[in-house]
Design a protein that fits this description.
The protein has twelve helices and eight strands. The protein is an alpha/beta fold. α1 packs across α12. The N and C termini lie close together (about 10 Å).
Length: about 260
């Protein structure tokens, strides 16, 4: 059975894409699922969630990152790295991804390059889930990520500006469906929630009014444990399992797994 491929995307920065991708992956792994994470952002924060800074810099210089695979148009199987977390593998990123739009411009069928490079891994039976982290843009690279995915999760922060640009994200997804008709929005994930703030409730209410768009029951609240985990090059799910956010990501992973069955 082919792996479920899910990307985390939102053109607004600071929505919690990378944190949600890393922790959902870690939580799925704890549920016994075999997970491959793909770091598609030049900031390399997804890679930093599983390797310390020195290791990340070594990986970035190794010539075996998502960037080199795309430039060389090579199958991604040789670019997979095992993390210290059971059931979690990762394809690292590099700061060279800052020039990926220029590189893609030279490629034939550029919008589906990542889908082609992932095809073998997706159908190999080695993974149950492939989770892809994307940068906060809506260019050819994010179109590649969406085209390579079965589903997209859109993290939305529960702040006054959290909904800003969401309509653009929906429009972009519709454009991608012209290339990849099976792509669906798995759901909107509310992040950085603080129930003490009125606007938090307002954001959630506004999202629930959207037609035919699932809003996950799981909500990720503001939690300092997330930052402590990041400082330790870890996910909060593994760093502090008893924390509120760790429990919330575990619940989200169960929700995602149930939907994808």
């Amino acid at each position: 059975m082919a792996a479920h491929t899910i990307c985390f995307a939102n053109n607004k920065g600071g929505s919690g894409k990378t944190t949600s991708c890393a922790n959902t992956g870690a939580a799925l792994a704890m549920l016994g699922k075999r997970v491959l994470l793909v770091d598609g952002d030049m900031q390399m924060n997804l890679t930093l969630s599983f390797f310390d800074e020195d290791e990340v810099m070594d990986l970035a210089k190794s010539g075996k990152t998502i960037f080199e695979a795309l430039v060389k148009e090579e199958d991604l199987s040789a670019y997979v790295r095992q993390t210290q977390d059971e059931n979690i593998s990762l394809i690292p990123s590099t700061t060279l991804m800052s020039s990926i739009e220029m590189e893609l411009f030279t490629k034939m069928r550029r919008e589906t390059l990542l889908a082609r490079l992932l095809r073998k891994l997706k159908g190999s039976g080695s993974f149950d889930y492939i989770l892809i982290d994307s940068p906060p843009t809506l260019g050819n690279w994010v179109m590649n990520i969406l085209s390579a995915s079965d589903h997209v999760i859109i993290p939305v922060e529960a702040t006054p500006w959290g909904l800003f640009g969401l309509a653009n994200m929906f429009d972009f997804t519709e454009r991608v469906r012209e290339i990849s008709p099976e792509l669906d929005i798995l759901g909107i994930l509310v992040t950085k929630a603080d129930e003490r703030k009125n606007y938090c409730r307002q954001v959630r209410e506004n999202l629930r009014e959207l037609d035919n768009i699932r809003v996950f029951d799981s909500v990720i609240h503001v939690d300092s444990a997330v930052e402590w985990a990041q400082d330790s090059s870890s996910t909060v799910v593994t760093f502090k399992r008893a924390s509120r956010s760790a429990k919330e990501y575990m619940q989200l992973a169960k929700e995602v797994d149930e939907i994808c069955r």
